[in-house]
Amino acid sequence: MAQHQSNPPLRPGAAPAPIVLAGATGDLGFRIAQELLKRGAAVRALVRVGNTKPEVTVLQDLGADIVPVDFNSVTALTKACAGAACVVSALSGLREVIVGTQKRLLDAAVAAGVPRFIPSDFCIDYTRLPAGSNRNLDLRREFNQRLDQAPIHATSILNGMFTDLLTGQAPVVLFGLKRVLYYGDADQPLDFTTTANTAEFTAAAALDPTTPRYLRVAGEVASIRGLQKAATAATGTPFKLLRVGGLWVLGTMIKVTKTLMPTTDDVFPPWQGMQYLHNMFTGLPKLTPLDNARYPEIRWTPVREVLAARK
Ligand SMILES: NC(=O)c1ccc[n+]([C@@H]2O[C@H](COP(=O)([O-])OP(=O)(O)OC[C@H]3O[C@@H](n4cnc5c(N)ncnc54)[C@H](OP(=O)(O)O)[C@@H]3O)[C@@H](O)[C@H]2O)c1
Q: Does the CB atom of residue 135 touch ligand 1 within 6 A?
């Protein structure tokens, strides 16, 4: 696997072209901003007008250029993208954001002559999933079709599931019951990457002008049996497996949950998380080949370490 310099060479005396970051006040975006700053990059964080989150002050204190901007205006976004080396999106939302806002940001990047764009994908490999199998991933596919038609170099980063979710949100490792719950095959390999590792990799990729269209990473590839071992090692207590049924059982549960739940504009309603797990358990969106070795300075955090650090 080739290893890559993440910092492009600069003309002597020239200031580095900034990395424009949208979504810098979010969980992933805030970490990407910090990783970029650690690497000596100039960061221009586009934030919504009136955003008073503490992250804004922290990033400003760390040296980021904070630019409040009207995300509904391509003209304003174009001005905000001027002179950038790359636009990174860590936005989160439904159609209005993933297709709408990101398309305006893309149009602005193209109009401003920015050479590179990294969309807010950060998920399992939706390119290998049939359309219609996951609402949130369908939105990414739709945006990326537009991105592929734009005169800009695009790189999507695919990282599987954030490992951090295993300590709470994802109902897989049940700490109270000492069980690892699953559907289908306990030996199906699954991709996990921490939010922190995803941010490090994204920062390195943003500073690397030679990135391909897709970069795939997994901090750890673990099957359900692997999670069982990790949970046992992390807690010092034996975990058992709990197979609820085949994938069709989970599929039925998703349908029932969707029917019973009122329509919501929540980005991650319970059925969305279940759908994500269903997709992973099918093995279709398994990430391969992995680009983990591309930036050798990154140390990938294993699942066991994340489970052990659970508060
Ligand atoms: N693979 C996984 O397991 C996994 C898990 C979680 C997330 N993700 C992905 O990671 C990415 C980032 O998610 P996150 O959890 O960091 O999201 P988050 O914490 O909710 O942050 C979202 C960011 O987007 C901004 N934003 C939202 N709507 C906007 C709009 N209409 N105009 C301008 N800015 C807007 C927010 O700004 P404000 O501060 O103004 O609200 C915030 O900075 C997403 O692609 C998400 O799907 C992946």
A: no
Q: Which amino acid is at 54?
A: P
**110-144 pLDDT tens trace:** 999 999 999 999 999 999 999 999 999 999 999 99
Distance (Å) from CA 310 to ligand 1 centroid: 23
What tokens appear for 299 in the block?
Answer: 């140390």
Between CA 128 and CA 243, with CA 218 as vertex, the angle to 5 degrees is 75
Distance in Å, CA 27 to ligand 1 centroid:
7
Residue recorded with tokens 């991933």:
137
- Residue 223 C-alpha to ligand 1 middle, in angstroms? 28
The CATH code for residues 19-160+194-218+285-298 is 3.40.50.720
Task: For a ligand 1 pocket test, name from 21, 28, 268 the mutation site with the most ligand atoms within 8 angstroms of its C-beta.
Answer: 28
Q: Two tokens at 290?
A: 């992995």
Q: Measure Cα distances from 183 to 23, 36, 59, 189, 281 in Å.
A: 34, 39, 42, 13, 7
User: Domain spans of the chain?
Assistant: 19-160+194-218+285-298, 163-188+222-282
Could you tell me the pTM of the whole model? Answer: 0.95
Among 162, 88, 158, 153, which Cα is nearest to 127's? 158
Q: For residue 214, give Cα distances in angstroms to 97, 117, 205, 234, 252.
A: 21, 12, 11, 33, 32
Q: How far apart are CA 307 and CA 311, in angstroms?
A: 9
Count of CA atoms in the C-beta half-sphere (13 A) of 273: 12
Give the span between the Cα atoms of 183 and 273, in whole angstroms: 14
| Residue 270 pLDDT grade (very low, low, confident, very high; cuts 50, 70, 90) | confident
In degrees to the nearest 10, what's the CA dihedral of 108, 113, 114, 118? 50
